[in-house]
Structure formats: C-alpha cells, structure tokens
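The pair is listed for reference:
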Amino acid sequence: MAAPKSLTFHLHQHWEVVEQLTRLSREFPAFELRVLEQVINQYKSKNMESNAVLTSLVNADILQPINRSSDYQLNTLVVDFVRGLTQEHELGLSAVLKARVDAIKVATSQVLEGLDVADNDLLRTGANRLSELVRKITQQLIQDKQAIFEIAEVAKSANTSVPIERRYREVLEVYDQYVEPMNEMMDSGLGGSFYPLLEKAEEALDTAVDILSMRGSLYQQRLAMRQIAYQVKDLRYQGRVIAQQCADTLLPLREEARQHNQLSVVISKQLSQVRKKGLARGLNAEGLPMWKSSRVTKIQLGNEVRELMAEFLDFEPSSIPFPDEEEVPTSPMINWVDEELLRKQLADSLPVKNLMTWLRENYQCIPDAELLRLYHELVRDSQWQSTLGASSSTTMLNTVAVTYHPHEIKMLIGSTNAKDIDNANEQNRFK
C-alpha cells in the first residue's frame, strides 16, 4: 500500500474524480479502462492529462488493478473514507451491531477483573476495548441512520406509476431485517441487550474511578476511565434517539404499503363478488353508507334545449327519389385451359406417376387455384384409374408449396390407350 501522505495528497489533488468513482462503485464493482477515461476527462483539472491522472491514482494505490483482468477497483479504505465524508453510507448488518454490543460484556468483565486483582494493565486493556467498541457502535449507528434516510428518500421520490409494492420493497426489507432487530436489541426491558450491557459497563467504570481514587492512582488513569464512562452514557442516549428516528422514518412508509395491499385485496374480493353474483347480491347494502342530500335540487331544461326540441317536433323529412336499377352486363367466365384437350393429353400420357407434377410441367401458366381444381376433378374422373400414394410429396407451384399424397393415373383394366388405337388404325390402313 502507498504511503499515507502520498494517498492523502492525491486524494486532495483528484478529489472530484475519486468522489465520482466512489458514487459509481455502488453500481460497478470494477471499472473498465474506458469508463475510467470518461470519468477522468469529465472531472479532472484542465491543466492535467488523463493518462497522468490515471497513473497518479494507480501509483497512490487509490485504484488497484484486478488480477487476471484489465479492470481496476477502488481501494476499500478510500471508499469507506469518501463515503464517510460525503454521508453516503450503505446500511450495515444488524448482526454486526449485535456482535459489537455483545463484545461490551467481555470488555466489562476485563475491567471488573482488573479491579479485583489490582492489575492496572488488564484494567487499561478492558477500558480501551470498551472505548473502541463504543466508538465503532456510534459510528455504525450514525452511518446506518444516514443510509436509512437515503433509502426512504429514494422510495418517496420514485416514479408513482410503479406499483407501491416495488417502490417500497427495499423499505420493507430494511424494516424487517434491520429496524426490528435493532429495536428488540435496544429494548430497555428484559428482552433487550443494549441497555443492560451499557448500564453494567457504566457501573463498572464508575466503580473503577472510585476505587482508583481510593488507591491513589494517577490522575490521567482516573480521567481516562471517567471519559470512557461519559462515552458509554452518550451511546445509551444516542442509541435510543437513532433507533426512534429510524423507526419514525420507515414506519409510515411500511404502513402505507401494508394498507395499500390490504385495500387492494378487499377491493378485488368485492369486485369478484359483484361479477359473480351481480351488483344487488354482490354488495352488502346494509353495511354501506347511504349518502343522502338534505337539500332538494330541481333541474329544468334551458331555452336552447326547448328550441331544439321544438325544431325536432316540426321536422318533416324530404323525400329523395332513388335511381332506377340498371342491368350490368355480366363478365364472361375466364377459361384458363381447354379441359377437353387437357384430358386428351393426359390420356395420351398414361400412365402418370404423379398427376400434380404432370400438371405443373405441362400447365405452368395457369393460377395455383385453377391447377388445384383441375387436379381434384381429374382424380375423380371415371375414364381412368386413380391410385393414392402411400408417402407424401411436396410440389412448389407458382405462389405456394403443396404437400400431399400423390395420385397415380392409370388406364382402366380392359381399356386401350387412345394413342395405341391410332397407331393400330394407321398400321391396318397400310396393310
């Protein structure tokens, strides 16, 4: 790690860049070189170059390279320091706070043990440990309070078009996971641990001051014990105030979300009853407030409406003669192909393995609908034998692809092909 003086100097020199990177660290755990260059170019001083700023931040250990990657991350100490100065803390864990509060019991026992055995070193160690724990607990409570205030402000300023369940989701989680455990821990009754432990620590420190005065100990030692006792007393007060402030901040939002959910459930249930049973049976008229007006209000028509109604009464429709019907010549049907010639060509081509393929090859110019009509009519024609194939086939027409079981066209048993008959007649004539 870099020297503290160097790190402090570079923080002072490049504070705007480090502050912006700290804010972005909530969304990006690591920064690409492209993102760093954009932030540095936007927030650096005008008389400095971007590469020089980046090199200074890396050399001062403010930015740390990540192993097996070209990205960089902020030093955790720098992140905590900057967030502490800018009051942009993240909410801590209630378990960490509880562990520190429980550690007060161990430090208090060290103070009492040091008094019993007259061990000044053990007494000093327990007192210093108490002071450190009190300082850390106070710091965490202040940071958590700032984080809870920020969470509440974000929830309040969210877009109102978003459902309230999504807007206040973090509020509900924070209240259930942090505020309630903290309230239970700071309960002044038998169920709490915060007040009893601090009260015992305060009594132990007061006893230590009295015993040290009777033993004739040094004034500095007695002053240290008295100062730590003041810190413990202030922590008891600060803990109660901060816990109350956190609860007062989140409780209205939590109740608003819960009331909204309950109201939505009741309304949905009532609407379902109305849909199923109707308005008369779905609503309980006895439980509904019946609003009635004490004053009788009379409504009369205005002069404009009366004039309009008089015009309607005197209205006489005018008769409009309709034109006579005219006969429109019917358009002749379009004959796409000579069906007699087609049947003759098909009879000359028998046998045909696939009728659709034969039509596609010989009559490409006709539309697809006409070709399909001819296909079905030729299949049902009685002058030849049509056999349906076992396997399907696909043929691409002009605009569509047709998948079907092809029909094979053969001559009827006992019949003769027209082409063979003509050939036979030609041979007999030559003979």
